[in-house]
Amino acid sequence: MSDLPAGLPREQLLRYILALADDELMLGHRNSEWTGHSPILEEDIAFSNIAQDELGHSLVWYTLYEQLTGKSPDSMAFERGWQDFSCCRFVTYPRGDFAYTVVRQYLFDEAEYVRLSSFGRSSFPAFKDIAGKLLREEAYHLMHLKGLVTRLGDATDESHRRMQAALDAAFPQSLGIFEKLEGEDALMAAGVFPGNEVSQREWLQRVVPVLASASLKPPVNTQNGTSSINCTPDLGGRQGKHTEHLNHLVDDLQLVYRIAPGAKW
Amino acid sequence: MTDTQWETYEVFHQSKKGDPHMYVGSLHAPDPEMALQMARDQFARRLKCVSLWVVRTKDITATDYQNDDFFAQTTDKSYRDPKAFDAPTKELSHE
């Protein structure tokens, strides 16, 4: 186990690391549900690759958690109850149609890109190292997802209708990524990260023009180049207040592990 | 029936700068940019890769298998074969 640099608030930092790991684990799992079912063979492979990347990112965060607490990634992923996870609700919802999946992954990737970029300036050296590694993969995810969003947004009447419906559902949910964490102020004061409010603003500046270029309208008011949110964010996940969807997801995720807990492969 | 498939692209993979791009297979994509992304996931995930080319299949001009006169060698041309010395096995490099 390694020690934290002096001055960093331990409990708050651990809580934040888990939130990051849990987001990636659940989204990776939801994305993996497309394997063998995507609309196009090539996209099936590309999307399964992205699913694996997200699971890989969760392992990176769980491994950091292990270094600080001694608790293994397996125990964090497979031995916790569904209400113990602190992922945002957004990543727990069923995969929907492919439009919903694409919109969700795009909105999440932009958020991940923003938060990883901010870790480049973190006072916690482990965050800097991890950001450097993960950002290179995220850059590709973003390129791919931006490609899908801008093409599907206005390709045909049906693709536009489905993408707009997906955005209507996904946008308020996606704001849950930026739900304020308990103890977040202490992390901001210690220079670990700039805080979710700042990240959300930066994220909004990135997603609004891309969506507009795809003829998609998020529930956002824009005045003098500044966008503000015009919907009710779907919050609660960071406090463990989840919906039944996560219960089912976790049942599925932990099914094999629970047959023989601690088994070695 | 309408063809709902995207166009096919042929994919060429280079494992080291200076090596020739080798043909690895084909895929469906809506445009060249997406074809490159699909090619990355299908042909460059495990093999080391520094460069990919994609070419619309329909942009390739090819010979016809039926027209075997095109390749016919009807007289003895063995004198043209490099038998008296070792031919270089390494491909000529180009960047």
Descriptive key words:
heterodimer, A: 265 residues, mainly alpha, Ferritin, two-stranded antiparallel ribbon, 9 helices, B: 95 residues, alpha+beta, Ubiquitin-like (UB roll), 3-stranded antiparallel sheet, 13% helix
What does this structure look like?
The complex is a heterodimer of chains A (265) and B (95). Chain A has 265 residues and is mainly alpha-helical. Chain A has one domain (10-259): Ferritin, core subunit, four-helix bundle (Ferritin), CATH 1.20.1260. Chain A has helices at 10-32, 41-69, 73-78, 98-119, 125-153, 157-174, 184-189, 196-213, 244-259; strands at 220-223, 226-229. A two-stranded antiparallel ribbon of chain A has the order 1-2. In chain A, a hairpin with a 2-residue loop joins strand 1 (220-223) and strand 2 (226-229). In chain A, helix 4 runs antiparallel to helix 5 (125-153), helix 4 (98-119) crosses helix 6 (157-174) and helix 4 packs across helix 8 (196-213). The two termini of chain A are 25 Å apart. Chain B has 95 residues and is an alpha+beta fold. Chain B has a domain at 1-59: Ubiquitin-like (UB roll) (Roll). Chain B contains one helix and three strands, in the order ββαβ. In chain B, strands 2-1-3 form a three-stranded antiparallel beta sheet, covered by helices on one side. In chain B, a hairpin with a 7-residue loop joins strand 1 (7-14) and strand 2. Chain B starts with 6 loop residues before the first strand and ends in a 39-residue tail after the last strand. Chain A binds chain B through residues 40-43, 45-46, 49, 140, 143-144, 147, 151, and chain B through 6, 27-31, 33-34, 37-38, 40-42, 45.
